[in-house]
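Hey team,

Filing this mostly as a record. A colleague (T.K.) asked me to run one chain through the structure pipeline before their review meeting, and I want the input and output archived in the tracker in case anyone asks later how it was produced. No errors, nothing strange. Just documentation.

Input sequence:
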Amino acid sequence: MTDGMESKEVPVTDGAESEGVTVTNGAESGGVTGGVEPPGTAVTSGVEPPGPAVTGGAEPPGPAVTGGVERPGTAVTDRADAVPARVAAAEHVVKEFVSGFGIAVPRGATTRSAEDVAVAAGGLTPPLVVKAYGPGLVHKSEAGAVRLGLGSPVEAARAAAEIRAALVGSGVAVEGYLVEEQAPPGVEVIVGAVRDPSFGPVLLVGLGGVWTEVLRDTALRLCPITEDDARRMLSELRGAALLDGFRGSPAVDRDALVKVLLAVGGPGGVVESLGEGFTEFELNPVICTPEGAVAVDARLLGPADVTPRERAEAPAPQDFDRLFAPRGVAVVGASTKRPNFGNMFLGFYRAAGYAGRLVAVHPTADAIDGVPCVPSLEGADVDYALVAVPAERCPDVVREARGIPFVQVMSGGFRETGAARLEDELLAAAHDAGVRLLGPNCMGVYSPAGGQTFIGGRPGRPGRIALISQSGGLAGEVIKVGEHRGLAFSKVATVGNSADVGPAELLRHFAADDDTSVIGLYLEDPRDGRALFDALRAVSKPVVALVGGRSAQGRRAAASHTGAMVGDARVWEALGKQAGLPLVTAQDDLIGALDLLDLHAGRQVPVSPDVLVIGPSGGASVLAADALDRAGLRLGPLPDVDLGLPVGAVPGNPLEIPVGPRGKPDLVGQVVTAVQREADRPYPDVIAHVNVQSFFTFGDSADPLLAYARGVGELQRELTGTRVTLVLRNAEYAPPGVEDELRVIARAAGVPTYRSVEAAATAVAVAKVRDQRRRA
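Output structure:
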């Protein structure tokens, strides 16, 4: 919605609203009051007396308004299942609604006529504020529909007349006027919520009021939030010091602001009460003072149409055993004349030594590439079918798959290219056949222990790392590169567009899988983000995610400031904080994090951001400190005791020691052991870095370097309560094969290796997120 787009007020159900004055609730008097109707209605029995209404008739917070009137932000209809039209509820109606949740708003009154403003303001205490409302007046300040600091009811009426003249002259319709007591100055805060199409309601808080978009100092969480979420959101703001008093100004009542956040985004709050009846909600500004927090402006926008992705209850746990260890596999799409993807997959299964029943589906051929053929999927007698035919043929192929538990459609050309209806038809075909669908637009499944593959060559050794990926190509790279570095995978599933089986369901499966201890995710659009959020909060195993498109997708135009600032990147960051999900930004970091989590799985370390960095002197130590700072890690100080450091060592953190071809290979172990013994709080993580190049510039053999790696490995064996990480800087300088040998030595002791301190810091930071989750 734009500022000029027409919007509707919440309609009145018992006749046209009178031309008289309607008194709006003052939060100080508590709740919806006396003669004031519940939120979304207008008084129709004549002019109400100005001033605060008599308390006593408040609607309880949360429940829908009775008598046929919907909550503010939806259109009234006699049909319970009707789709409400998009509306922008009038400010006074929204304030009346939120006051029922304990949110303080200024005392005020409304009237249809500018001439009646003086009467409406008669019982209010100046200074006063006058605002016009009507269709198109979403951003009233920008439209010139607000006047502040009015000293009397007469001055307020004069201001209303000026507003009317200016707006009518600009072609803007005015339906009425809200006159209120002006709140005292304080720290201005925005509290808003927007409905993300995948993750549902997202709460935002930020400093700046009308300057929020300029300052962009905001924090987000998925709803519903907890009190701890609310307090953490405030602490994340760059300008949080303003809330605590700055340059002589008093501290605001943080508890009152926390209550506002919970009233909006907490369990049973405004957002939960509105349900599907809103797209954007905003209190801006909320003025915070030592005495409390008052919402002086409020906006509620309903959806243009209610077409959310239907969110069914979480499906019953699916037995995916036959997906990852099928007794039979059928490949649809292989050709007898021209090799294609189907032929390629037949070759993959043969190269992998698949021991089950392998068939190709072809209407006339007896065999393709040495693999026997069946005419269709009907009666193929397999557990898994891989479909590699043109997109328009896929629904018919899937309809033939009745009796096959899992069908994977690798073909593209569906929703990702704009062909959403074809994808819907494909999903319907899967439902009709009673099969579970993976994809479309993906590659396949990989399980060394179960014979599944979608990559060439012999499978790697079975391991304990699982991966769920919406990109088949990236999943293949993670497997190949990871296995080259020594990683081993239990199960990998590519899900593409996730039309049926999605990341959330597979995550729940891996969470209960005895063969899996660490889980990686590559996601772009999880389709049901809320289900993923719930699954992430429930899983106890380490999970790390790489999310594609965070900087480019999901930014949509919005009529409120909140909607304009909530983009996919911010939502993922909020999800990560609430679910304890570490997010990485590159494929190599995903592999590195999985490596560290796997090698150190089950190792219990103290929960602390501290890291000890140890290695040769020079600028590398300074750069290492910078890298750790960027990763959010802390170089905790060394114990203030004599550590017996060797000649040439420079005490501090990073701790500089002589490391090279003529150095003692066990020196790192001796020094770190001494530090950990003397430390009041032993370091949870130690990053040992070495300049590989120096061993071959000042030496002529790899033996001293290999001995150094063995010394680091021995250190890890001795320090069972510490995670040790090895950084092989300038490893490309080593002769061929040396780097691989170093990795093998380190891995045998449970030590992951990296080529840069930056990569190691990222992996260690991921592990520390999981530490915090474990403590919580």
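Quick notes for T.K.: The longest strand covers residues 187-196. The first helix runs from residue 91 to 99.
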